[in-house]
Design a protein that fits this description.
The complex is a heterodimer.
Chain A lengths: L23 H23 L13 H28 L2 H32 L8 H22 L4 H25 L8 H4 L3 H44 L6
Helix pairs in contact in A: 1-7, 2-3, 2-5, 2-7, 3-4, 3-7, 4-5
Chain B lengths: L1 H44 L20 H4 L8 H46 L1
The chains are: A mainly alpha, B mainly alpha.
Chain lengths: ~240, ~120
């Protein structure tokens, strides 16, 4: 196979940008989300206390945005996995694994912060309630997605994409579970009926969490692109007999 | 004649008096019935208060799940829980950023190594 000059190969990183420099979107998002993460607790502490639960209700301001980001990640992963399964798109596969890792990350935050709130408000760390159980189930599905990708062998990516479809099917169930079944978990209407002083810190926390999500998404996606570049370079080097099989 | 008239008048007066007493008693009885019936009817309409289920040993069963009532009287400080929750989010994000940065650095060095090999191979 004839070698093309490296500077003209599309597999190489762009000639104008050094490889260590993160994309522009990251340069903007990372400091913004870090500032937001410092500012959010100040606004949360200044918000009025909830009458029944008191101080511990302040967990709500970051527990719910984390849950939203986890559901957003699951939705993105599900849609991207479907595109990968039906159109065999590499980009869709890269987006899917990025979103899956973020679903697991934000899902873990939900699963940890929820019991800390529940311990004080309900008197228990965990309750096998529909909302809690379906959220845990979705988290386990996306953890198994990552396991399938890592240890599933040659067919692991397609197997994982199938799992993601099951995971995304759980998203509407999680959302409507509090309205369909009798549950001790607060209903979805708490957000629309928030008191005046609680609304601003809550939506600010939501915005900060979205910025964090986007920054991490951009970071993780650039890693996945680098991995694809590495795979192609490795195959090229193998063809040339420069590296072992 | 006059004696007869006087006798008749006295008996009529006493009859009228008896009628008045009877009417007054009847009215009082009706009022009493009314006072009794109003609260009774209201009580009949009100749903019977739910009685807690008592089992054979006489214990009162709490309708909530057992694990919810186990620690209900414990008092826990809320501030450490809130701080732990927010701290965990910070930690998770930092660990994730660190993990992605480490993986990227490793991959970039491997890409650099491969690029170098391919460039050397092309120049040969």
């Amino acid at each position: 196979m004839a070698m093309t000059p490296m500077s003209k190969t599309p597999l190489m990183s762009g000639p104008g940008r050094p490889s260590w420099l993160p994309p522009l979107v990251l340069l903007l998002l990372l400091p913004l989300s870090a500032i937001g993460l410092f500012q959010a607790p100040r606004m949360i502490l200044a918000a009025p206390a909830e009458a029944t639960m008191g101080f511990v209700q302040r967990i709500f301001y970051f527990h719910v945005p984390c849950a939203w980001m986890s559901l957003l990640g699951a939705l993105i992963c599900g849609v991207a996995s479907a595109i990968y399964l039906f159109k065999d798109s590499e980009t869709a596969d890269q987006v899917a694994i990025t979103a899956a890792e973020l679903t697991v990350l934000f899902g873990l935050c939900v699963i940890v912060t929820g019991p800390l709130w529940a311990r004080k408000a309900w008197g228990v760390w965990w309750q096998w309630d529909v909302r809690l159980t379906s959220t845990l189930l979705m988290w386990i599905i996306f953890v198994s997605y990552l396991f399938a990708r890592s240890y599933g062998g040659p067919g692991g990516r397609r197997l994982a994409a199938g799992l993601a479809l099951f995971g995304v099917a759980d998203v509407p169930l999680i959302y409507i579970s509090v309205s369909l079944w009798k549950t001790i978990h607060p209903k979805t209407t708490v957000v629309s009926t928030l008191a005046e002083g609680m609304r601003v810190p809550f939506f600010f926390s939501g915005l900060v969490m979205l910025l964090v999500f986007l920054a991490l998404f951009a970071m993780r996606l650039s890693l996945e692109r680098a991995r694809a570049r590495y795979t192609t370079l490795h195959l090229l080097a193998q063809d040339e007999g420069l590296v072992d099989e | 004649m006059s004696k007869m008239n006087t006798k008749n008048l006295t008996s009529e007066a006493s009859k009228a008096m008896a009628r008045r007493v009877k009417r007054s008693l009847y009215r009082r009885f009706c009022l009493l019935l009314l006072f009794l019936c109003v609260p009774l009817s209201a009580f009949a309409q009100a749903p019977a208060p739910a009685q807690p289920k008592v089992d054979s040993d006489g214990f009162v069963a709490d309708p909530r799940p057992a694990n919810m009532t186990a620690m209900k009287d414990e008092s826990i400080a809320a501030a450490p829980l809130v701080a732990a929750a927010y701290g965990f989010i910070w930690l998770a994000v930092l660990v994730f950023v660190g993990s992605v940065a480490a993986r990227t650095t490793k991959l970039e060095s491997e890409i650099g190594f491969l690029q170098e090999k391919l460039e050397k191979g092309a120049s040969r």
